[in-house]
MarR family transcriptional regulator (Intrasporangium oryzae NRRL B-24470), 280 residues
Amino acid sequence: MDALFLVWLVARSTEDLLDSALAPSGLTGDEYAIYSVLSAAPTITPTELARWLAAPATTVSSYVKRFEARGHVTREPNPDDRRSYRIRLTPKGRRAHRAAGALFAPLRTEVAERLGSRAEDALEVLLRLRTVVDGIRAGA
Amino acid sequence: MDALFLVWLVARSTEDLLDSALAPSGLTGDEYAIYSVLSAAPTITPTELARWLAAPATTVSSYVKRFEARGHVTREPNPDDRRSYRIRLTPKGRRAHRAAGALFAPLRTEVAERLGSRAEDALEVLLRLRTVVDGIRAGA
DNA sequence: CCCACATGGTGCGATCTCGCAGTACATCTG
DNA sequence: CAGATGTACTGCGAGATCGCACCATGTGGG
């Protein structure tokens, strides 16, 4: 068994679980995660967001357009760079995120319970994995 | 920090890393993983494959069509159920998988090295996560 | 100060993903 | 051994992802 392959399997299962659980909120698992990133920072540029998501710029561009059309996000001018802009979750966007969060919470709890004493390990391992993979991605 | 969210972040990074690394082989990260599942079992039905991938039947159907068009996969009648069929990797498909595997190997090694002593933990945690998530998905 | 080159974003189009609805076969019930 | 109900798969179409080519702006060298 290989760690990267397992990451992939776990991710598929997780994605499916979240998509089902969050469906009533109107957000997909991916979208919930993205909204979570957005709500963690008051404001963020597309490039920064792309780095967090490890997604291509074009995809992020589509996200912003979609979320903006929903009224969940606004663009503000970026004082530091006129080519760019800053993305901000609107109150409506925050509400959507909270609503999805309410559906997400029970899963979070359930997973923590089932992990039992290994919950701590799991967090540490995952953080380390992200560091390792990003390190390799960054070029060495 | 939440385990499920971290799973998602790690998966995005991993996917990006694999897509870049495997590009010369003509397979994406997803496809490499699927070919890996296919090569682990001599033969598999679409429904079984869908369970492994935690993917909807329709998506698996598209996969099979695509891989078949590449000559990487064949369909054989399923003696147990005439609605179904069995998917088998062709020699050409195996070759493609091996070629991608050659590009994958260095990453595997690199990740293992960087994880160091935690490599064992990582595997265990990931396996446990898959069990936990699948358990919840299965309904309780 | 200008120019060459690097970087931030987007329109467009090819390709994927996946829900819905439909068909074919299997299985269960009486 | 029907008839009803469930399960395996697929055509189709809507929406999502993302590479390529492109424009606008920033930056570093001479």
